[in-house]
Amino acid sequence: MSLFITFEGPDGSGKTTQARMLADYLESQGHPVLCTREPGGTEISEQVRQVILSTHNKSMRNETEVLLYSAARAQIVAELIRPALAQGKLVICDRYYDSTFAYQGYGLGVDLNLLRAITQFATGGLVPDLTFYVDVPVELGLTRRHRSETNRLDLKNIEYHTRVRNGYLELVKAEPDRFIIIDGSGPVEQVQEQIRARMITELAERRMT
Ligand code: TMP
Fold first, then answer.
1. Can you spell out the DSSP letters for 129-154?
2. Would you say the CB of residue 99 lies under 6 angstroms from ligand 1?
3. Which atom of ligand 1 is nearest to the CA of 95?
4. What's the gap in Å between 39 CA and the centre of ligand 1?
5. How close are the terminal C-alpha atoms of the chain, in Å?
6. CATH label, 3-208, candidates 3.40.50.300, 2.30.42.10, 3.90.580.10, 1.10.486.10
7. For residue range 73-100, what is the model confidence (pLDDT) as tens digits?
8. How far is the centre of ligand 1, averaged over its atoms, from the C-alpha of 145 (Å)?
């Protein structure tokens, strides 16, 4: 039985590390796992990622940004995610369309209904079974983030990142059955423990243990 799990969170939430750790754990339990990321995951989508995140592309329009993320998404869904689910894998994706709603919708102010239509077109309506939202206060996230790589989106201001986080909290509220909210502010192992415990419960409920 397949399962589509996504990880979401503000920049610096640590969700990438957590997604990888969960994938390793599930593999160690004998589950077939595909762990990937957005934007990226396929050759074409990784090329699109370079364009989106390049610090050279400062003049990028909001419309362009939305369409590039969606283009990368259309490719990874068709080329990687759907085939893996068809093979009965547990697919873990670091970010998916909730990021577009949080960052481009709530963050940049792009119309949410428009984003819904574009997302439907890009994904063919593929909705995650489960989404871990790893929450951290904006300041903590940005402090963590600036210790590692810098990309074009890091140049945006703190108000933008606050809108993104509040947007995520709205999304979680609107779909409480799909989202699992995780406090990402503690040590890595402690956060992973919370995620693993919830995952074990979810697998048991689906009789996938
Ligand atoms: P990452 O830090 O998780 O690799 O993500 C790269 C950046 O891309 C991050 O700042 C969030 C942003 N992003 C969007 O703005 N919209 C999207 O749809 C996705 C997938 C990512």
1. SEEEEEE--HHHHHHHHTTS---GGG
2. yes
3. 20
4. 7
5. 11
6. 3.40.50.300
7. 999 999 999 999 999 999 999 999 999 9
8. 13
